[in-house]
Design brief:
The protein is mainly beta. The chain has a single domain, classed as Jelly Rolls (Sandwich). Helices cover 11% and strands 43% of the residues. The chain is built from one helix and twelve strands. The strands form two sheets. Strands 1-2-5-8-9-12 form a six-stranded antiparallel β-sheet, with no helix packed on it. A six-stranded mixed β-sheet has the order 3-4-6-7-10-11, with no helix packed on it.
Length: 168
């Protein structure tokens, strides 16, 4: 299967769903009577209802849900030997030969299968304090500051709204 630049393709097979985004290419297969997909270019999102519902392949890597809980994973191929994998919901298990790792919910990994084949990304503008993202790529922590301020503001507004007019 292949999608054009502005297109997408969604497939549902039993307890699994695969969404292939624009400019992507994948092959659907069966492994022991279970659906599987091999992503060769582009990006895809898959969701499963249990750990045996779907298997996802990128080059030599095999990605599966690690529990029987509903799971959503996202994969983006950067080049034939490098890709990003993110666990959106639930945890994923990624295996490359004998190396098996668990990706917790909300965490993304940049996987380089052959470090000599990975193309270096062009360097963009850098300022003081700029950091390169390394393995694993995690959610930014600065998001907690605006969330905390919003909670404090909401509590104060509710307190003021519910205050008795008889109380000075």
């Amino acid at each position: 299967m292949r999608t054009e630049t502005g297109g997408s393709l969604q497939i549902r097979a039993g307890a699994a769903r695969l969404l292939l985004s624009g400019s992507s290419s994948a092959t659907l297969t069966l492994e022991i009577d279970r659906p599987a997909a091999i992503l060769t270019t582009g990006s895809a999102v898959f969701s499963t209802a249990n750990s045996k519902a779907f298997t996802f392949h990128v080059a030599a890597a095999v990605i599966r849900p690690s529990t029987d809980l509903p799971t959503i994973g996202q994969v983006m191929v950067l080049n034939p030997k490098e890709f990003l994998v993110k666990s959106v919901r639930g945890s994923l298990r990624i295996a490359v030969e004998d190396d098996v790792r668990e990706i917790p919910e909300g965490v993304a990994y940049r996987v380089v299968l052959d470090p000599t084949a990975a193309e270096p990304e062009p360097q963009g503008p850098r300022g003081a304090g700029a950091k390169d993202h390394k393995w694993p790529i995690k959610k930014p922590k600065f998001i907690w500051i605006p969330i905390s301020l919003a909670i404090i503001g909401t509590v104060w507004a509710v307190h003021e709204a519910l205050e008795s007019p008889d109380r000075p």
